[in-house]
Amino acid sequence: MRSKEELFDLLVDTVIGKCELPSDGERAWQDQIVGIGLELRRVLLDHPAATRLLSGRLPFGPNGLRLADHVIGVLRRAGLGDKMAGYGYVILIFYVTGFAVQEIAFGKGPSNAARMEEVQAYLQGLSAERYPDLVAVAGELLAPRLTDRFEFGLHGIIDALAAERAAVAEKS
How would you write the pLDDT of the chain (172 residues) with one tens digit per residue? Predict the structure, then answer.
């Protein structure tokens, strides 16, 4: 080990290695990407200290490369060109890791619900005159589960990739 940064890189790569990747190509590509996103998020939430190290770090150790190659392969086999397969991978990784980092900020385990209630109460207690729209949706921002919001965003990414795929196919 030459440096602390190298140790951090290895730690992040070890955690990414815990992400189980689907081996079947029988499921639709969209379902495979959702599964990978959910699995990576689960792994990151299970290892909050390592997840915090992802910021500013390229996950290109052996396990990170395995993940990148797998995601890009799913997208290429789905008919996305190299550019969109690359975009899809980067957007997926940034989305999943960013979401996980923010979730970790709310606390893990039993403290998570209490922290969410605290934030929700704070938002609902804001001045409705000063922040009318924020106060109006305060009860919807964080409750009941962040997983619902995560999956909504994940499906948005997939829908955009599918639309790009369809547009390219239409031009052909």
Answer: 678 888 888 899 999 999 999 876 789 999 999 999 999 999 999 999 888 888 878 888 999 999 999 999 999 999 999 999 999 999 999 999 999 988 888 776 556 777 777 888 898 889 999 999 999 988 787 656 778 889 999 999 999 999 998 988 888 7
Three-state secondary structure along the chain? Answer: CCCHHHHHHHHHHHHHCCCCCCCCCCCCHHHHHHHHHHHHHHHHHHCHHHHHCCCCCCCCCHHHHHHHHHHHHHHHHCCCCHHHHHHHHHHHHHHHHHHHHHHHHCCCCHHHHHHHHHHHHHHHCCCCCCCHHHHHHHHHHCCCCHHHHHHHHHHHHHHHHHHHHHHHHHHC
Enter the pTM of the model: 0.87
